[in-house]
Design goal:
Elements: E1 2-7, H1 12-24, E2 30-33, H2 42-48, H3 52-56, E3 59-61, E4 71-75, H4 92-99, E5 106-110, H5 119-124, E6 127-129, H6 142-159, H7 170-184, H8 192-209, H9 213-225
Parallel strand pairs: 1-2, 1-5, 2-3, 4-5, 4-6
Helix pairs in contact: 1-2, 1-6, 4-6, 7-8, 7-9
């Protein structure tokens, strides 16, 4: 299940356009975090067209930390080098091909129109997705970015119908990270920063793999045997 989360939207027109795109690709669960405008404004309804139901059912919450999902996926136009672990993204197609094969809940974050997602919000995500664009102007409108992402998801889901499994849940991933952290605490690191880097690497690897439930249990069992 895919939930679309729009972070601090600033204009009702963009909320309406996003609702319309969601309806185009059979998605109905929209959450707005700390919106700066009324999502039921006439401009939002006008842009939503026949997606009024998506607007009316939209949930409003105060913080990303209030989101309940197995996978929290950020979208960003800003990528880093291979050393910038939080901003080492998947492409929309890579993400869609993995996400289409699982039935777990995924929350896809769409950043602010003016500033996107903040670094501390990116840190909370399991990983990020970036749409390849021109280097001269790489930032897409929120609803345009959503169109590309949801199109790729829709195509991948149509292709993989009947081939869906249960992936590791958020609880499973937290338990794996707890076991990894326990093992890392027994090792010597040159600095706290290097230890933190290891945790970030493992968090991204585990989430990007979309490992099955069975695989997650096998990994937990292995980690428990490490003394």
């Amino acid at each position: 299940m895919i939930e679309i989360v729009f972070v601090e939207p600033e204009t009702p027109g963009n909320i309406g356009a996003l609702a319309r795109v969601m309806k185009n690709f059979n998605l109905t669960k929209l959450t707005l975090i700390n919106p700066k405008c009324d999502h039921l404004d006439e401009e939002a309804k006008k842009r939503a067209k026949h997606a009024q139901d998506v607007l009316k059912k939209a949930k409003v919450i105060k913080s990303i930390k209030n989101i309940k999902a197995d996978y929290l996926v950020g979208t960003t136009a800003l990528t880093g080098t291979s050393y910038n672990i939080p901003r080492s993204p998947l492409t929309p197609r890579q993400f869609a091909e993995k996400a289409a094969k699982i039935k777990n809940k995924i929350a896809l974050l769409i950043g602010r129109e003016s500033e996107g997602l903040y670094n501390e919000e990116i840190e909370l995500c399991d990983f990020t997705v970036t749409i390849p664009t021109s280097k001269t102007y790489g930032t897409l409108n929120a609803s345009h970015a959503a169109t590309i992402l949801l199109y790729e998801l829709f195509i991948a889901q149509e292709k993989d119908k009947g081939n869906i499994h249960e992936s590791a849940s958020d609880k499973d991933k937290q338990q794996i990270m707890k076991l990894l952290t326990s093992s890392m605490n027994k090792l010597d690191f040159q600095s706290k920063e290097k230890k933190d880097t290891q945790r970030k690497v493992w968090k991204r690897l585990i989430s990007k793999s979309f490992m099955t439930k069975r695989e997650s249990f096998a990994l937990m069992g292995f980690l428990k045997k490490i003394k």
